[in-house]
Fold this sequence. Notes:
Elements (H helix, E strand, L loop, with lengths): L1 E4 L24 E8 L2 E9 L6 E6 L2 E5 L8 H14 L6 E5 L5 E7 L3 H12 L2
Parallel strand pairs: 3-5
Antiparallel strand pairs: 1-2, 2-3, 3-7, 4-5, 6-7
Amino acid sequence: xxxxxxxxxxxxxxxxxxxxxxxxxxxxxxxxxxxxxxxxxxxxxxxxxxxxxxxxxxxxxxxxxxxxxxxxxxxxxxxxxxxxxxxxxxxxxxxxxxxxxxxxxxxxxxxxxxxxxxxxxxxxxxxxx
Length: 129
């Protein structure tokens, strides 16, 4: 499952029915991959450790881009990513955990007890879609 949101301004010259991802259009629709899991939903994340500030930056290659100031040493960046996502999504500590990608920038974060539709709604609310 993928989450789509549209950043095009509404109006007759920007009909949402023709929305689709293109590199030339700055208002192109983007998507974040979500995968159903027995315990909830897996959210694709692209990590940027050692950033200037902690931030969730939108979509990057089908994943939610998450920047953290923590260095990629001893799992500190992973812990910071999980904590930032937990706060950003407004979830409990027990609802968010790193499932895969402990030593990779491309990660899968498990959102426990939430269906892909619920995670879609949370992302759309936070990303303005």
